[in-house]
Design a protein that fits this description.
By secondary structure, this protein is an alpha/beta fold. It is built from eight helices and nine strands. The protein has one domain: Vaccinia Virus protein VP39 (Rossmann fold). 44% of the residues lie in helices and 19% in strands. Helix 3 links the parallel strand 2 and strand 3. The two termini are 30 Å apart.
Length: 279
């Protein structure tokens, strides 16, 4: 599914980053899923499930009468996700290896969801069309994605963080990722033939009085992306380390709010009902 050169890598360090990120991103994801209409008893497909955190969130919403199928291309991450599922005692989640644009599953799904997934697809509109295929008529598609072109770091007088975000954004862009896909979600859904009102949810995740959380959040990106930062010629390793030193001082000296994300958007739509049928 990652049509781009996946700049974050597939290491234990990156898997740990994904778990920490999931806790920070959960509030917007949950509001998006509930606003979209994800509810008890539904059968839901989790696109690019990774370490399983969105699947776990969906399982909480659909309850024991519902079910979740999480699909990812990374066998190693699926193994870890299933270990986490077992530790939680969840019996209504199944993790499958594969491309969620061509998932092979018995029966139709009531919904398909994903977080930070479409940004890695070469053609998000075509992907949405394929993702809609295993949904029942009227089924829900809901995604939570970035708009990395919008960040409050400069306005909040955090120049080192702004520079660091530029470094990460440039690396993502050179990998082929679509960092502003969040701003395109509704248009892409329309182009894919989906229906719904343009009612997005949006936010920038922040913390206050927790500089260690903020620093770890951004520094973990550098840990995961350093090989690609160097490979793409965005910066040499020493320059990245120097920037991280400045970032640490800036964050620990900063009063008030500290941003933990770029601008994020949650958007949803529905697969059109069959003519003459009720949703």
């Amino acid at each position: 599914m990652d049509d781009t050169d996946y700049a974050l890598g597939r290491t234990n360090t990156e898997y740990e980053r994904l778990i920490e990120q999931a806790e920070l991103m959960r509030p917007l994801t949950e509001r998006t899923l509930r606003a979209a209409g994800i509810a008890a008893g539904m059968r839901v497909l989790d696109i690019g499930c990774g370490m399983g955190d969105v699947s776990f969130l969906v399982a909480d919403i659909v309850g024991p009468q519902g079910s979740v199928v999480g699909v990812d291309l990374d066998v190693s991450v699926l193994h870890l996700a299933d270990q986490r599922r077992a530790a939680r005692g969840l019996e209504n989640i199944l993790f499958l290896e594969g491309d969620a644009r061509s998932v092979d599953s018995e029966g139709l799904f009531d919904a398909a969801v994903g977080r930070f997934v479409l940004m890695y697809m070469k053609d998000p509109t075509a992907a949405l069309r394929l993702i809609a295929q295993p949904l029942r008529p009227g089924g829900i598609i809901a995604f939570h994605e970035w708009v990395a072109g919008i960040s409050p770091a400069s306005a909040m007088n955090l120049p080192s963080l702004a520079s660091f975000q530029d470094l990460i954004s440039t690396t993502f862009e050179r990998s082929g990722a679509r960092l502003n896909i969040g701003a395109e979600l509704y248009r892409r859904m329309q182009e894919a033939g989906l229906e719904g009102e343009p009612r997005p949810l949006a936010e920038v995740a922040c913390c206050i009085g927790q500089p260690e959380v903020a620093y770890r959040r951004w520094a973990s990106f550098a840990q995961s992306m350093l090989p690609k930062i160097v490979q793409y010629g965005v910066a040499v390793e020493q320059d990245v380390m120097d920037l991280l030193d400045r970032l640490r001082r800036e964050i620990f000296d900063a009063p008030g709010l500290l941003p933990l994300s770029w601008f994020m958007v949650g958007q949803w739509a529905r697969k059109p009902p069959q003519p003459g049928s009720a949703v």
